[in-house]
Write a structure and sequence with these properties.
Layout lengths: L1 H4 L3 E5 L8 E2 L2 E2 H6 L11 E13 L4 E7 L5 H12 L12 E2 L2 E2 L6 H10 L7 H4 L14 E3 L2 H8 L4 E2 H4 L4 E3 L9 E5 L2 E9 L2 E7 L10
Parallel strand pairs: 8-11
Antiparallel strand pairs: 1-4, 2-3, 4-5, 6-7, 8-10, 9-13, 11-12, 12-13
Length: 218
């Protein structure tokens, strides 16, 4: 337990060669598949382990629950713990039990989804499956937000960048401000439009997910 606890906090990891991280413009797994793993130097990355809970321990195995930041490689973490213990370790089972804002109890397993499909008397009726879907903004609910009036949001949705001087007098900010360069939700009238960030006093739309101002074509 003392060894496991030493990994809590900000630590560095060297990602595995079979990963999608790009080095020299190519994903690492492409080097591995071509037998060229020794030709590339994998840079270390900072990640954060918020907590590690030891759930079970036997003579030759242990089970842990890890709460971590994005970009964490659990297999690498376990291998590093094994090295620290001096005996080596590898993952035999890995299960994701939560994603930010979406705990396990709010998820539906593949088996349950398949059963709903099999039990559906009308193959063209997807209403029960649709009822399980979450709105896009639920996955972003942990981000701060800026709420814009329509006259500012409409050109932004269409790719225009808006300056802070145009925004600050009429926008509503939650947990952020014009000096923040962190990702934030962009809202209009309570509707989620997408994600953006401020840079040098300009609001830049990084990814617009919906266009409520789009005129319907007849």
């Amino acid at each position: 337990e003392e060894c496991i606890g030493s990994f809590v906090g900000v630590i560095t990891q060297i990602p595995p060669i079979y990963s999608a991280i790009k080095v020299g413009g190519k994903p690492l797994y492409k080097y591995a598949r071509k037998g060229r793993a020794d030709e590339v130097e994998i840079p270390s990355r900072e990640i954060e382990i918020y907590s590690i809970t030891l759930l079970e321990k036997t003579e030759d195995s242990f089970t842990v629950e890890v709460y971590c930041s994005k970009g964490t490689y659990i297999r690498t973490l376990i291998a590093d713990i094994g090295d620290a213990l001096g005996c080596g370790a590898y993952v035999t089972m890995l299960r994701r039990i939560a994603v930010e804002g979406l705990p396990e109890g709010q998820m539906t397993g593949l088996e349950d989804l398949q059963k709903m499909v099999d039990d559906n008397e009308n193959p063209e009726d997807f209403s029960k499956l649709d009822a399980l879907l979450y709105p896009l903004d639920k996955a972003m609910s942990w981000l701060p937000s800026v709420s814009l009036p329509e006259n500012i949001a409409k050109p932004l949705v269409h790719g225009a960048r808006q300056t802070a001087s145009d925004i600050v007098a009429c926008a509503e900010f939650k947990d952020c401000g014009i000096h923040s360069e962190d990702p934030m939700q962009i809202l209009c009238g309570g509707q989620f439009l997408g994600v953006g960030h401020f840079s040098k006093g300009v609001l830049i739309p990084d990814r617009i997910m919906t266009d409520p101002f789009k005129e319907l074509k007849r």
